[in-house]
Write the structure tokens for this entry.
Amino acid sequence: MIVCFSGTGNTLFCAHKLSDILGDEIMSLSRHMPDAPQDIHIRLKDTDRRIIWMFPVYSWGIPPAIHEIMKKATIESAADTVHWMVATCGDDSGLTAGCWRKTMRKRGFMTAAAFCIQMPNTYTFMKGFDVDSTETETDKIVNSESRISMIARHIADNAKVPDDSIPGRYAWIKTVIVRPLFNRFLTSPKPFHASGSCTGCGLCANSCPMENISMCKDRHPAWSNRCMMCLRCYHICPAHAVQYGRKTIDKGQYRRLMDTIRQS
């Protein structure tokens, strides 16, 4: 089984490709995010012997909401079930693989390899961060195909291979030092607002995996405090009206794979 969360389509795109090769069923966590982590139930078929955890890397680590699910969800599987990690990242993943292994080990699960797939950048909420150029975006998606095929071969063979998670430079500093500061000070939903170009279509509210957005009487969206900073509302807005303070002014949107989210 592939247990997958995708904010803007990158991870779900990879999950579908992996599923097509391996035949594994996809369980989309987007449908379960408003639930308490301990109420989420992952049940494998009697013949299944693997769980593939798929998620986007957020600030060089596992998205906190997904991490809580990993720690607390009810998982019904055979004792010899093997867990794999296949994450997506814009450039590198830091020590994400190690964090995932530690979490699995605390639950007594057997782990195989952890992989990462470079996909188009979607983070735009800080100075210096923006979406990739169209050329880079296309190259990453095209290049992902061969990497997904390689990962699928290893999983199908239950191969004992080393992690290939693209940790990048200064991985320890990014995950251990920068990440906690980022999560504490730079993930508030308060700066979210809709600009004057908002048409009141409600797509942001209807698409939010955390059910964190409501439409006011004036047909403009309002954000509550359950945001996981997946940026789906920002990228899915057809009027480019969703903004994050002044940090997203003149920034781009990533809509290449958004159809996979709408269809999930």
User: Anything to note?
Assistant: The chain has a mean pLDDT of 96.
